[in-house]
UniProtKB/TrEMBL annotation:
Active site: 67, 136, 138, 143
Gene from which this protein is expressed: nagB
Protein name, UniProt field: Glucosamine-6-phosphate deaminase
Function: Catalyzes the reversible isomerization-deamination of glucosamine 6-phosphate (GlcN6P) to form fructose 6-phosphate (Fru6P) and ammonium ion.
Record pathway: Amino-sugar metabolism; N-acetylneuraminate degradation; D-fructose 6-phosphate from N-acetylneuraminate: step 5/5
PROSITE patterns xref list: GLC_GALNAC_ISOMERASE
UniProt keyword annotation of Hydrolase present: yes
Amino acid sequence: MEIVILPSADVVGKVGADIFERTVRENAHPVLGLATGSSPLPVYTELIRRHREEGLSFAAAEAFCLDEYIGLPVGHPESYHQFIRRVFTSHLDIADTAVHSPDGAADDIPAAGRAYDESIKAAGGVDLQILGIGTNGHLAFNEPGSSLASRTRIVTLTEQTRSDNARFFDSIDDVPRYALTQGLGTVMEARHLLIVATGAGKAAAVAAAAEGPVTASCPGSIAQMHPHVTLLVDEDAAADLANAERYRYVFANKPEWQAL
């Protein structure tokens, strides 16, 4: 795991955008894995700026979102189908039909999960998957206790996750209790994982995922088993890392870092 400690969320956004831009430019048909929530927003903001001001094109790209709530009406503003368009893809030149989300309104949710995994495979697999990490260590909606080999499936959201997401709704009572999420096994098939975390509230989860044992108790720890992971954190999110000084030293002495 390449761990890069950066001075602020803005810098995390710029370095994360560098990695996205390289993926987009180096692949004739880049397949991008998109996460929702607040963690990726600095990256998305910088990519939108580069598209508008520098001509970075996503016209050849295809994108797959990580998860979707179950039970929200189609078109609900806080569905992840709508959220990713509102904050990111509608500001780019990627075709709306090339942005895919799990179908949380399907009549047969388990079948929809299986079909989603197959659609990712049919696209050639994900080249770059951006991920946040929850305060309890979850990746996507894979809560503690999730199988490390899990596929896209129905999950029950913990009260911690519902509380974390309540800021997007009128009250916690409006936050759905179930979601359709890519499983950890599905996520691990992406060729490059880009994990971003900022703020003191993520410090414990970052340390557990990066330096703790690989365990279902911290789903994010499965990333340690992936051959190509970049973890971008600001100073606050790095506060609990036991080896923080070593990570800072490696970064400071690696001018070729852009080749990650």
